[in-house]
Write a structure and sequence with these properties.
By secondary structure, this protein is of the alpha+beta class. It folds into two domains: 138 residues, 2-Layer Sandwich (Zincin-like), CATH 3.30.2010; 50 residues, SH3 type barrels (Roll). A six-stranded antiparallel sheet has the order 4-9-5-6-7-8, with no helix packed on it. Strands 1-3-2 form a three-stranded mixed sheet. It starts with a helix and ends with a strand.
Amino acid sequence: MSIHEYLEKHLPASKARAIVDYLQEHKCLLKITKPRKTKRGDFRQNGRELSISVNHDDNSYRFLFTLVHEIAHLKTFHLHRNKVKPHGEEWKSNFKNLFYHFQMEEEFGKDEAVFKVVAYELENPKACSGVNVTLEKAFSLYDEMEGLYLEEVQEGQLFNFREQVYQKLETRRSRVLCLNVANNRKYTINKAALVRLS
């Protein structure tokens, strides 16, 4: 399946074409990868080669949000090279502008609640969508997953995450300090992680 065909699973053909044309104009390769645990997408510059990778996701909202996030890195690189912060003001401005340039408000506007959360996020976007629990909850309504968010688990309670049993210890800003029961080591896990109670 071509990149254009893959994008058409998430977008009308004209918008898919606009994104493909934009990437070709900027000589950037788009790769759709298997879902990764640590990231949803990335932009890379290796010498003269530019590439964006985005995890395969049946959830169009999450996929498109991640894609525009990474295209904003491409635009920021073209305008500023590596002279600005990866998620600085220049990137934030490009992210918002590209969201509207590609007319994503029409796609996200199909669910008014999702669009409201996304519009708020666009005012001050974060490094990744998973950091924003409200954004992740809005997107997760379109996932076929079961469970509850880690932020909803009571402190001291046991839960399963990625086939391991943890105890919730302490909530921090966007992450939760947890104890892995098997190895007695502490880890921080995103508050928006989907977990199952033990």
